[in-house]
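It is worth pausing here to work through a concrete case rather than discussing structure prediction in the abstract. The textbook approach is simple: state the sequence, then state the predicted structure, then interpret. We follow exactly that order.
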Amino acid sequence: MSLIGVDIGTSTCKAALYSAGGRLIAGASRSYPTLHPAPLWAELDSRLVVSAAIDVVRELGAKAGKERVTALAFSAMGEAMTPVSADRKILGHAILMADRRGEEEIRLFAGRFDPDELYAINPNIVSPNYSLPKLLWLRRERPQLYASADRFLLFAELVPYLLGLDPVTSYSQANRTLLFDLRAQAWSDRLCREAGIDPARLPAPAPSGQVLGELGAAAAERLGLGKGTLCVLGTHDQCAAALGSGLWSAGGAACGIGTVECITPVYDGIPDLGAMRALGFNVEHHAVPGLYVSFIYNQAGSLVNWFRSTFASTERLGSESEAFERLSAEMPSEPTSLLVLPYFEPVGAPKFIQDASGLILGLRTSTSRGEILKAIMECETYFFLESLGPLRGLGIDTRRFVASGGGAKSAAWLQIKADVMGLPFERATAPEAGALGAAMIAGLGSGVFASYAEAAALYVGRGEVFEPDSLRHRIYAEKYERYKELYPRLADIL
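Step two, the predicted structure:
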């Protein structure tokens, strides 16, 4: 008996096959390109994404052997919706969060509400990033496509729907549309009415872990699985990564370090929404009933990739991981004196600054590239330190961090984070925490285990812990005071 978790990301679909006893049997992945048909546009060909998801499941199904696959679940990025027809055909591409379309539409929509009132229904900071602005843009600019769509689906429910199951989305995914009522756990009548969106064209919201149904003969054959395999409703990818990192109860935060770093605190109870909005934070259901999460995110791996392409573009450094290890070996052992403002691209939550630019301060002719790389890692961590303080003031516990993703493979980076934060950083044991989280959801929904506590005991071990160095932390604390002055002093110039 085994479980499959599928994590559909912006550039790659990753999946993992686990035995019911917690053993990782195999993993698989497929990548697909981001399309940029115009400046500031970013799309995915939904057919390629669905094909990738089916391919990874087929690959893992073939490796299951005697460990027959009992159930599978899908987690996915939020926001990106695909128009589909009544006969379950994909009609167009999915517009990604980073795409700037819908700015004017969401400005006009938000103008119909008192900001606190709107946030009280759907606690997200209104911006073009979410699904609603893209739907409003599509209705205005592609009216025929919009009218021909029977439904608009996020990827976590799109794949099951194309396999013949009902269109159902998790509370966490629904929240990313800007149309979901957090407290009512349903589509908001008022938000949908003001937007002119018929809720019948959206998937039905439900809690993660709900069984969507058994795969029919044709769907099972397409996936290379047995007829009757259960498909379980998954979750938003960040929630899945938190679950796969062992955060199934309140307290602590997942730290996913990829192209973008996202810190996801997990807590019980809806906090003071007025305070959360004033600070720029969202509130979203976790995959675990009764728990909630918020997201703090900004550039991370993208800055390291920029460093490599700028300072080592002509060197043969091997694979991406080998290159990173060779370059990080040049970093000094002690904190640097450089300050980096990690605003090279539009800034994520909770600041949401769209028009800044990056900065490296303190360069000399004696500065080495290793110092610059380390300063990038130091100061992108400062961004998160600056954001976490206010959350702690609201009683949200973020004294434990579990790191996953490509950046978590770097011991040097995790040690920097521990030294800057003055708190331990634990490395997740799962190679892909998001896929593991989806597999755990599949197991809970199908009755393989009775609780997430039971699942975590089987699937989530304690990884390597990086303890902060007290001397380095004191140096970083002094440097942090200077970092906090950078943007306020230079905002007009940047």
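Step three, interpretation. The chain has two domains: 2-240, 247-427+464-494. The first helix runs from residue 46 to 63.
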